[in-house]
Design a protein that fits this description.
Length: 296
């Protein structure tokens, strides 16, 4: 394998990443799907960081694969690619980052061929996660061979032989993580995804009486028309309890005292009509208020 073939392999890798993101954007996901994809990508990245002390024991592959099962190929690819990119801000960016993004992205896309009409059981899901985990580490060995070696088959065998132990460790970790939380996570994501799906159906004859009743309760008004019935200031619009509260407030001791003070001052309680012709409530004079013991 020459350096031209290696360069071509890296170019194909970059085009694959661009094509995966383009497929996701072509689906025009709404904000709820975007939030769910971002949350799962963050969870996958944090899962990798949380187990940094254990070499190659990471739940990231399981989370990405389950996200692909529940959400589809496009969102699953984005979850895997973003998990590889963001987690490497902790582990360190380098030539291995595109290979990790592509490998985990393809893991999210694996649901297109592995998904069936019914959900997988605990052990089948765990075996699929273990196989994807082993494939992920194999892709990393191939990436190291393309990036750092002389591109000979002997060097490829050496790299694969050195990393075969870590590959099995990663596959075993994926198996254990899938047995621990795989079905629960798959049900949670599937339930949330079902809530995002809205189906619009045409109105049939059975809904016409319901719509007619709603239109009548609305006041028999159409778009841009005012409702028929009492106006806003009409007491008939108030509930009986609110009307009773207003009546008690109007007949309270403070109102009775004000009417008595108005009679002492020679004024008649009620409204007076000023020169403007608009009815206004009579104001209490300060002297009258002081005579009644009301503090100003």
């Amino acid at each position: 394998m020459s350096w031209q073939t290696g360069s071509f392999t890296i170019l194909v890798l970059v085009l694959a990443l661009v094509g995966g993101f383009a497929r996701y954007e072509r689906g025009h996901p709404d904000s709820r799907v975007l939030a769910l994809v971002a949350t799962l990508a963050t969870l996958a990245a944090l899962g990798r960081i949380a187990f940094a002390a254990l070499p190659n024991v990471k739940p990231t592959t399981d989370i990405v694969l389950i996200a692909g099962f529940a959400l589809g190929g496009g969102p699953g690819f984005v979850v895997g690619a973003l998990a590889g990119l963001t987690s490497n801000f902790f582990f360190g960016q380098g030539p291995w980052t595109p290979w990790q993004m592509a490998a985990w992205g393809v893991t999210g896309l694996a649901r297109a061929t592995a998904r069936s009409g019914r959900p997988l059981g605990r052990w089948p899901l765990a075996l699929v996660c273990a196989a994807c985990g082993f494939a992920f580490t194999t892709v990393q060995d191939f990436g190291d061979w393309v990036t750092y070696s002389d591109h000979s088959l002997a060097q490829l065998g050496v790299l694969v032989g050195r990393g075969i132990g870590f590959d099995f460790i990663h596959a075993g970790g994926c198996l254990l993580f899938a047995l621990a939380f795989g079905p629960a996570l798959a049900r949670s994501i599937a339930r949330f995804t079902a809530r995002l799906q809205v189906t619009w159906r045409p109105v049939d004859g059975a809904l016409l009486p319901v719509l007619a009743l709603a239109w009548r309760r609305r006041g028999g008004r159409g778009p841009g028309q005012r409702a028929l019935g009492p106006r806003r200031g009409d007491p008939g619009r108030l509930p009986a309890r609110r009307r009773e509260c207003r009546r008690r407030l109007r007949s309270g001791p403070r109102q009775r005292l004000q009417r008595a003070l108005l009679r002492l001052g020679g004024a008649r309680p009620g409204l007076h009509r000023p020169q403007s012709g608009r009815a206004q409530p009579r104001r209490l004079e300060p002297a009258v208020l002081r005579a009644g013991g009301i503090a100003l």
